[in-house]
Structure formats: C-alpha cells, structure tokens
Amino acid sequence: MGSERMEMRKRQMSVQQEPVSSAQTQQGPGNRGPNACCFCWCCCCSCSWNEEGDERSRRASHEIRTDDTLNCEESAKPTVEDVRSWGQSFDKLMKNPAGRNTFREFLRTEFSEENMLFWLACEDLKKENNKSVIEEKARLIYEDYISILSPKEVSLDSRVREVINRNMLEPTSHTFDDAQLQIYTLMHRDSYPRFMNSSVYKNLLQTISEPPSES
C-alpha cells in the first residue's frame, strides 16, 4: 500500500508540472505570448512612430516660429526727434520699429519680453489672408503665449481667455484682438513709465544727442 501511494503521488506531481513547463516554454525569451506581442506593439512600435511624428511636428512648428517676429525688426537708426517723441507718447514709440526694438530690449531686462513678442505675433497674423496659414499661426500663438503650460504665457484675464477659446474654434486674423489690446494697455501702464526712467532710454538719448566727434 505504501509503494502504491508513493507511485500515485509521483504521477500527480508529474501531471501538475507539465502545464507549468508548457507555459514556461511558450513564454520563454524567444516566444512571446499574445499579451507580450500586444504590449510590444503598443509600447515600442506605436510609441516610436508617435515620436517620429512629434519630431516632424516640432520641426514644422520651428520653421514657422523662426520668422521675423522673433528676431529684432529691421529699422533705420533713430534720430534725436524720434527718440524724444517716444517720451511724448507710447503710441509713437510702438509705431516706430526702432522704438519697438529699444523698448523690447528694456522688457528683456524685466523678463517680460513675451508681451512685445505676443503683440508682434498678433500684428503679423493680421497681415495674413491664407486660411491655412492663419490657422497654423493662430495655433502657434496660442501655444506660445496663451497656454498656461507655456513659459512665455502672457497675463490675460478670464474674460479674454474665454473669448480666445471660442475664437480658436474657427481662427481668423483677428482671433487675438482683445488679448492684444489688453497686453498693449498693460505695457503702456506698467512698463512704459519705467522705460522712460531706465538707463536703456536715457543712454540712447544721450548718445544720439551728442554731436559727432571731429576726426
């Protein structure tokens, strides 16, 4: 009886081990099961494809972002009258390319250059007539200056943000008009008075007012 029981136990153990060995063989390093294949496709093939797509999108966006609005505007050397007029009116300052460049230099020292960049981007958008270009530029402006995730986000109130979000459903060249006006007013009331008392403005006025030295 003892030997029969031992024999039966050996048979039971061999039967229990067979499925385990079979499962291990199917899921060995060289043989992935259905779940492993699915996981591989989702986390390897799919993600690598998405990374390539994201890279293409970033390159396309970079090409559009590297327009003239992100670089200093071309402008003639300002005259004494030009520089003095900037102190008379913020409108005169903003209508003068050299004035905008000088004011932008000052904003950079206050870490608020994004206000001028946003204003310039809106001006550039207003010049567009092509619908697809307008939509793409509007998207980039939103990502760069409106999105709360952007490091260059400008300060806008909730009402203006709601208007922008509605306008973004069908972007036009005037999608950001309310926001542009608010940022213009902010620069006028907040930054402009400090600019007038800054070394950036005073040094320029002094330099340009000095008579040329005789050789």
UniProtKB/TrEMBL annotation:
Domain of life, per lineage: Eukaryota
Biased composition (Polar residues): 13-29
SMART domains: RGS
Domain RGS as annotated: residue spans: 89-205
Family matches, as SUPFAM superfamilies: Regulator of G-protein signaling, RGS
UniProt record, GO biological process: G protein-coupled receptor signaling pathway; negative regulation of signal transduction
GO cellular component labels: cytoplasm; membrane; nucleus
Membrane topology label: Lipid-anchor
Protein known as: Regulator of G-protein signaling 20
Organism: Polypterus senegalus (Senegal bichir)
